[in-house]
Amino acid sequence: MDKEQRFTGAKRSGLGCLLWAVIVIVLSIALLVGKFYYDIEYKERTLLLSSSPDHANTIEIVEKGVPSFFGPSSIRIKSGDKQIDRRLKNDGARPDESNVDVKWNRDNTALITLSGREQRPETIEFNGGGDHPFTNVQLELESETVATSISPDQTYMIEIRETIRSQGEKPQEYLTIYYGRYGSELKEFKKLDYLLRYSDQTIEWTSPTHATVNIVRNDKILETMYIDLKKK
User: What number of other Cβ atoms are within 10 A of residue 149's Cβ?
Assistant: First the structure.
């Protein structure tokens, strides 16, 4: 083998090694990128594992992936091969077991609650044994009286209550106006079924049996209701 042939062989060998090195580097980068993408989007981290009293049903709540910068977390609730995916707004913080809760009513029914820093608690009902065991439900979390007024002759009373519901498709907050004789059980007059956060309520009596209720926000009247208690 002459000198030129040896040089050509060495050159081919060097190119082959370089090609293999490039392939190895590219594959390594692809694996790292793939692992990073899997960890960010799909890797599951268990937050809570709960079994029914008879241990026949199990509910597992996991965080799927990692939230983006101050974005919501992806939450997956699983039981057997059934699951439901939800979003949890937690101000960008990673959720933990304090953000989730499971309360078993019976061996095959439970109420699941997801709580975040930037949302009302969300409630999901579990009914084992069906094709769709998870259902979003709405519960009244709390109710507070925000305004009351008694008629000039102390005979009638009007009360406005703010009710907060668990998160879901319907409004999270609403106002309900109640009326009736002072000292007796009040009846519902009207429910304002839309978001009324930061609103004020005024009740003005025009006579012992007639009142005007205004819902006001930023000095703008959102709705006016006239109540004739003689007809109630």
Answer: 16
Give me the sheet containing 210-217, strands edge to edge: 200-207, 210-217, 220-228
SS3 223: strand
Pseudo-torsion of CA 104, 64, 67, 117, nearest 10°?
Answer: 0
pLDDT in tens, 159-169: 999 888 898 76
Q: What average pLDDT is seen over the chain? A: 85
User: 50-54, 106-110, 150-154, 171-175 — which is least confidently predicted?
Assistant: 171-175
Helix (H, G, I), strand (E, B) or coil at 24: helix
| Burial (CB count within 10 angstroms: exposed 0-12, middle 13-18, buried 19+), residue 102 | buried
Other CB atoms within 10 A of residue 136 CB: 15
